[in-house]
């Protein structure tokens, strides 16, 4: 009897391990697949997820996102570009402010820019953007971020009440090498699964958060 119970427990444990592995693998593949998509329907706004900036100068990750947002704006995807992201401790500029200044310098009209200067992670950023959308009667957005971050960002935007699609960047440090891509996919897989289980966000490395 004891042997049978032991065998049953071993099978249950084995099945649980296999299910966990399949969940991780399928999530990683979904992140990879989403990263390869480029959805750009006509929307109320283009939303650029903030990341590191240095004294008002966007990092290379952030610059890649902003340049992609300019191309979407010029293609007529939306009449407004929203930058989002707060200040880290000691920073003089917020991510949203640095992004807005970069876009203005790049030729985007002032009245086509909105900086939402809050948000320390993706989830908080999506929530404050959702509030800004509600105040203006907007509903739909095209999200601009790094490819591997797109699926989590889109999920969090939708959970915050935004009709979201994603148009990830196709340049910048996040896509330079296969090793870099693999590392970010692994990190995003963990972050996405944590969000689905806990409903909480995590602060990521530059280019991910």
From TrEMBL:
GO cellular component: plasma membrane
Annotated keywords: Membrane, Transmembrane, Transmembrane helix
Domain DUF218: 44-190
CDD domains for this protein: YdcF-like
A Pfam match: DUF218
Transmembrane segments: 12-33
Protein name in the entry: DUF218 domain-containing protein
Organism expressing this protein natively: Blastococcus haudaquaticus
